[in-house]
Amino acid sequence: MTPILLTIALAGLLHITQFVVASYMANVDMGPGYTTSPRDHDSTRPVRTTTGRMLRAYDNNVQMFPFFASGVLLIHLTDQATGVTVGAAWVYITARALYIPAYALGWQPWRSYIWLVAMAAVATLFIASLI
C-alpha cells in the first residue's frame, strides 16, 4: 500500500472508532429501546451535552471524509504523491483526531481552527492535483 493510500485506511479507522464511541454514548443516554428502533419519533430521554457533541462531531466527519478520500484518490490515481501531498494527508488525519476531543470538550474557538486546518489540508490535495 502506498503512503498516500495508507492515510485513507487510517482515516477510515478513525471514522469507525468515532462512530462506535458516539453510538455507545447515545445508547447509554437514550437506551437500546430507542437506539435499536426505527426512530419514528424523537427520543424521550435527553442526551448529555458531551454525547450530543460527539454525535455532531461524527456528523461533521461524515461530511468531511468524502472530500478527503476524493482528494487522496485523485492524487493516487494521477500518480502525484509527493512529500507535500502525503504531509497534507497526515495533517488532515491529525486535525480530525484532535477535532473529536475539541468538539466533545467545547474548545472554543479552537475546534473551528482545527476544522479549518483539516479543510486546508484537503484543499492542498485538490490544488496539488491540478499542478
Automatic annotation (TrEMBL):
Compartment list: Membrane
Top-level taxon: Bacteria
Coiled-coil segments on the chain, per record: none
Pfam families per the UniProt record, alphabetical: MAPEG
Keyword Transmembrane helix: yes
Keyword line: Membrane, Transmembrane, Transmembrane helix
Signal sequence, start to end: none
UniProt main location, coarse: membrane
Cytoplasm in keyword set: no
GO cellular component: membrane
TM ranges: 113-130
PANTHER family referenced in this protein's UniProt entry, alphabetically: BLR7753 PROTEIN (PTHR35371:SF1), INNER MEMBRANE PROTEIN (PTHR35371)
Name assigned to this protein: MAPEG family protein
Species this protein is from: Pseudosulfitobacter pseudonitzschiae
